[in-house]
Amino acid sequence: MKLFNPNRLILARQRRGLTKVVLAERAGLSSKLITLYEKSIQEPTEESLKLLANTLGFPVSFFSGDDIEAPTGDNASFRSFSRMTASQRDAALAAGGIAYLFSDWIDKNFNLPLINVPDCSGMEPEAAAMVVRNEWLLGQAPIKNLVHLLESKGIRVYSLSEETNQVNAFSCWRRGTTPFVFLNTQKSNEASRFDAAHELGHLVLHRHGENKGKQVEAEANAFASALLMPKESIFAYASTCKTTAAVIKTKKFWNVSAMALTYRLHKVGLLSEWVYRDICIELSTKGARTKEIDPSPRENSQILQKVLTFTRDNGKSLQKIASELNLKRSDLVPYLFGLAPVVVESNQLHMPSPPRMGKLQLVKN
């Protein structure tokens, strides 16, 4: 085990969204020293390391140990990539590295569902969505809980810890074998579901190729729309949906946003251009572009919920898990926000007991 690992200093700095200059100023060190530390040319003294740890909000022990693997800009697919700053991108990728650590701990202690994600590279989005539905035995029925579905197919789903509108969601294949999806759980459930379907689109469509640019984003959007609202289902249940009131009522069937349903109706030919525009304008006046009308309850995570409940019942708190990873509890909570019943109040962690669902096996060492 390395006594000081520059890889962890870089990740911690990027996680906090700091440049080397800003970190140096806040820690009372020179930016030249930070550069020397990160390039492994010089190791920080015990005093300097404490200054860095306090400034970055990580335990001193975090800066020793093996390298932390993190998603890269090459293999991570971001929504709204063009509006992100380099600092926001690096912070999100570093957050992914922390999520990898947490995920490794879960994998070590529990048997998770096997990975079953079809490779639809080169397919048209609509066709790829149907392949996924067929392989996952979904038929034409609405997807009741998309987070549960993704987890059941071995996809690791975490809350996106960045509190910014510029980072909606992102996904990646870790080492080309393990799929991850990070969701902005501060959005409406309908928007978050579409984000999840969009990222699934990247995972199945762009696994081996370019995953950035307007074209691939359009493909992922088309996949998400077809996955959540299959064409045959739309024709069967929404062929007479021609008004704003009907859209708002009917969207509940597929648990999608009013805007998403309106677009899909137009895309499959059920709404003329004029009617489509009129409904979009009326929905906009109702504020549907920024806040969902009559939103549905948020989806949660079965895996994270079960892991936290099991460990709690066996005397291990989230604080203890964080300590095993040389992290603070506050660095794990954001990955659970909106997905698992974790509430932080007065530095205490409360995890209400959820209903028992499915199977999650503990690994016996």
Automatic annotation (TrEMBL):
Gene Ontology molecular functions:
DNA binding
Q: Which domain of life is it from?
A: Bacteria
Q: Known Pfam families for this protein?
A: HTH_3, Peptidase_M78
Q: Where do the HTH cro/C1-type domain residues begin and end?
A: 9-63
| PROSITE patterns (alphabetical) | HTH_CROC1
Residue intervals passing through the bilayer = none
Which family is it part of? Belongs to the short-chain fatty acyl-CoA assimilation regulator (ScfR) family.
What's the protein here called? ImmA/IrrE family metallo-endopeptidase
Q: Which organism is it from?
A: Cellvibrio polysaccharolyticus
Native organism taxonomy: Bacteria, Pseudomonadati, Pseudomonadota, Gammaproteobacteria, Cellvibrionales
